[in-house]
Amino acid sequence: MLQRQWDPTFSDSNYGFRPGRSAHQAVAKAQSYIQAGPCWVVDLDLEKFFDRVSHDILMSRVAKRVSDRRVLKLIRSFLTAGVLENGLVGATDEGTPQGGPLSPLLSNLMLDDLDQELERRGLHFVRYADDCNVYVRSERAGQRVMTGLKSFLTGRLKLKVNESKSAVARPHTRKFLGFTFSDREQAKRCIAPKALARFKERIRELTQRTRGVSVAQLIGSLKRYFTGWRGYFGYCETPRVLQKLDEWIRRRLRCFLWKQWRRGRTRFAELVARGVNRNLAAQTAGSPHGAWRLSCSPALSKALSNRYFRSLGLPSVGPAPIN
Fold it and tell me: What is the spatial distance between Cα 302 and Cα 276, in angstroms, rounded to a whole number?
């Protein structure tokens, strides 16, 4: 009920935790500001926002919109209910419970003051939860905006800006909601380097030979992970990056299977059974080179082809492979 009443009053530049709005829409809006012309971004990140929200300041905002004292008491009780850790309930005198159904709405209400201040100054901005990007024409203007916003957030809302994650910079050097933008006239959406690094780290964990899982189980784990990851990061406009990830994943899987086969005789038999010439199979099985180098060898490329992995149900994170 509160969502239906409050949401229409929030800023159009606020995309976080709102019906009909998404992170992809926020990224697209940021992209439109960047493509409009030369610009700098004031990348603002609030330090431990959900943990440091002042209950008194937040409740004063709620009281302006809710007149029923029973509802106000209920919301206050929600904020001060405490956190269960190691079997003990610890009191909470600030912050909103992360994961609580009311927290997203309360966070939007709290930061609506920030949105109104940015609109009052006539600034172009995009906000998703505690991530806020403001777009200006020069570095000097950006530094001025950053100083003003720090003062506003500290003085008005008692919130602290995360200095290590906030900066005034060119958009292509910063990330926003897992994406960054190419340094060209037509700025394209790219997957941020840290997001790519996290993806590769997760794949390395899943494809460790020491996990002791079958190929079918491994493919199932990868499939579940790819579904969510591709659903979000497939929004990028750099298909070549996704294609490179597919190639890298297949090399990891070839390494996984090569190590599972272990002995030279087993490797030779597996290669021959999969259509590799006996001479090439013998040469590859007896090779002193490591699994990673052999993973792109002619023998393994033929025995464990792209088609073979598709037959196991391995989905693609990028354009469909040819062979």
Answer: 7
